[in-house]
Design goal:
By secondary structure, the chain is α+β, with helices and mostly antiparallel strands. The chain is about 25% helix and about 40% strand. The chain has a single domain, classed as Hotdog Thioesterase (Thiol Ester Dehydrase, Chain A), CATH 3.10.129.
Length: about 140
């Protein structure tokens, strides 16, 4: 499926592009939508995401999990500045180039200064990776 066809399919399913700059722009484009009040994110894997075995690079999965958990922490707390304190990722199955990765982060616990979030990165019904993250609320500069 071409990038244009994938973008059209995602848009028809209610996804919108996430504006990005810097490193994440090189990884994306990322897509987002809200379903039943919960944020979901998508990343269509392309040739640029492959490892030496021709599968989705683990660093892509880690970056996707980190970014989507961090975005969710910002949206839920309303705090614009957060930093990843810890991210634990477990690789469960290989992702294939051309597949669409989905992340559905959920807040586990929130304190005044820390947000605990978990997500599964899936493709259809397959779990590709799991991640647990801790995000620190920073003072606005």
């Amino acid at each position: 499926m071409t990038e244009r066809a994938v973008a059209a399919k995602l848009k028809s399913d209610g996804w919108s592009l996430v504006e990005a700059t810097g490193f994440i722009q090189l990884v994306g484009p990322l897509w987002q939508r809200v379903v039943d009040g919960e944020y979901e994110y998508a990343l269509h894997t392309e040739d640029k995401h492959h490892n030496r075995r021709g599968l989705v690079q683990g660093g892509v999965l880690m970056t996707f999990a980190d970014r989507t958990c961090g975005m969710t922490a910002r949206f839920v707390t309303g705090k614009p500045m957060l930093a990843t304190v810890q991210l634990d990722v477990h690789f469960v199955e290989a992702g294939k180039i051309g597949e669409i990765l989905i992340s559905r982060p959920r807040v586990v616990r929130s304190t005044r200064s820390l947000i605990f979030i978990r997500t599964e990165v899936t493709v259809d019904d397959r779990c590709i990776a799991t991640a647990n993250g801790v995000f620190k609320v920073l003072k606005s500069e």
